[in-house]
Amino acid sequence: MSLAGDRRMIRVAIEAAQSASAADVPVGAVVFDADGTEIARAANAREALSDPTAHAEILALRAAAKVYGDGWRLDGATLAVTLEPCTMCAGALVSARVSRVVFGAWEPKTGAVGSLWDVVRDQRSTHRPQVRAGVLEVECAGLLEEFFRRQRG
What we know:
The chain is of the alpha/beta class. 37% of the residues lie in helices and 17% in strands. Strand 3, helix 4 (87-95) and strand 4 (100-105) form a beta-alpha-beta unit. The longest helix is centred in the C-terminal third of the chain and has 16 residues, at 137-152.
């Protein structure tokens, strides 16, 4: 996929992030099929759902699995997300057989796609998706900075 295509996908993920509840950290994730067609999208909803697993990536993967042609296997799919996935989400996208991961902002405290850990490219794994990092990083980081500025307000 081209950088322009990945930027388009991250812009859609930014839209998804903006739909998060006021209490949830604005992270958005969108699953696209191999042709670049949107399959599912979600925003973080841990606070809204009182669910520690309700990260945007998990919710988007669950929704995509319901509509994707091969059940839980998301072969050929790209997950675009505004923030580097954590270990839970990175493990889920590997388990779902997502082909590509595109993310915006790096997460140095909990990131598992290159920052703190690199779950998706671990040589011991049976599936290793391609990764493009830092796409529209400034815009994605800006969403988080604004959210935390309001929280400290």
